[in-house]
Amino acid sequence: MISCLKQHRLLAGLLTISSVLAGCSSDQTTRESQSELEASTLIEVSGEKTQMATAPTLTGWTTETSIGTIVAERPETARVLELVGIDYCCGGQKPLIEAAKSQNVDSNQLLNALLVVGAPPTTDQHADWNKASLPDLMEHIVTAHHGWLRRELPPLLETTNTVLRVHGDSHSELADVAATLKKINDALLPHLDEEETTVFPALHKLVAGEPPADIAKQLESLRSDHDKLGTELHRLRELTDGFKVPDDACAKYREMLTGLSALERDMLQHVHLENNILLPRAQSLLADHESRP
Ligand SMILES: [Fe+2]
Ligand SMILES: [Fe+2]
Predict the structure, then answer these.
(1) Which ranges of 93-250 would DSSP assign to H, the alpha helix?
(2) What share of residues in the chain are helix, strand, coil (percent, to 5)?
């Protein structure tokens, strides 16, 4: 008999995962993963319905695939297994169907959750944000990128601190990795708040033809923050030798490196949209406004 509590935890996790994907879907999902996600099915769990992907062909995973293989190939799936209490380190040899049974969860449903999380890495190349309106671009930045950072940074910090505790003695660079990530987190979250509460509302006023007096200074301040964040992100890449997995890395270590790499990828796309599209267009609009008699 399936445990209702675990099914609900799995469902809650799936909804979180779906929202992550939805946040990225407008521009970050590759054509391959989009077509995989379009081949979706509705599954009813405890009287509720949620949309989940059918098996992507790229992974080749089935319910007979071992848990260890799945986490080794896509470390981010570890979070789904943790959600339902499956031990993927010591129990890594177990096939998925057996591990699911031991935790009273449906193996096909669990496989679908793993496939959604293990979808191929995303890119940010499908929407032409140069042609979008500034309000649409700002909405996209807040929904896709700020949303992603607020969801992903806290668990990534936790994972990094765990890896530091366990592997810090044999990997001295991990103390700097954890400290750098904390520095990024502490600078980034107020930066997101500043954009959402001050700068983006000022840009909405600019679009409406009524820019606040200090808007030019605000825009320059954003660029300066981005430069500082870029330096710290580069430091993370250096410290981890380009997010290279060491020979003695466990699944948690791999999960941390995947998370750090995903952070870099998201920030590159995010800051590109702000530095190369949003700010120049805003500055041009401001120049037009100021040149009017
Ligand atoms: Fe931003
Ligand atoms: Fe920013």
Answers:
(1) 96-102, 107-117, 134-140, 147-167, 173-194, 200-207, 215-239
(2) 70, 5, 25
Enter the pTM of the model.
Answer: 0.60
Q: Which residues are placed with Cβ below 5 angstroms of ligand 2, an ion?
A: 274
pLDDT attached to residue 32: 34
- Ligand that lies nearest to the alpha carbon of residue 149, given by its number in the listed order: 1
d(CA 74, CA 115) in angstroms, rounded, equals 10
% of the chain exceeding 70 in pLDDT? 74
Type of residue numbered 261: S
Q: How far is it, in rounded angstroms, from Cα 222 to Cα 271?
A: 10
CA–CA dist 68, 266 (Å, integer): 27
Residue 196: enclosing H or E segment and its boundaries? Answer: none
Q: What is the pLDDT of residues 55-109, one digit of tens each?
A: 333 467 888 888 877 876 676 787 788 778 887 755 677 899 999 998 889 988 8
Query: How many residues does this entry show for the chain?
Result: 293
User: How far, in Å, is the centroid of ligand 2 from the Cα of 218?
Assistant: 11
**Cα separation values, 183 from 79, 91, 164, 190, 194, Å:** 24, 35, 16, 12, 17
Q: Could you state, in order of their start, the residue ranges of all structural domains in the chain?
A: 4-117, 134-291
Mean pLDDT of 177-195: 97
Greater confidence, 124 or 19?
124
Task: Please give the distance, rounded to the nearest whole angstrom, from the Cα atom of residue 188 to the centre of ligand 1.
Answer: 9
> Nearest CA to 115 among 155, 65, 153, 150?
65
State the sign of the Cα–Cα–Cα–Cα dihedral 227, 228, 229, 230.
positive
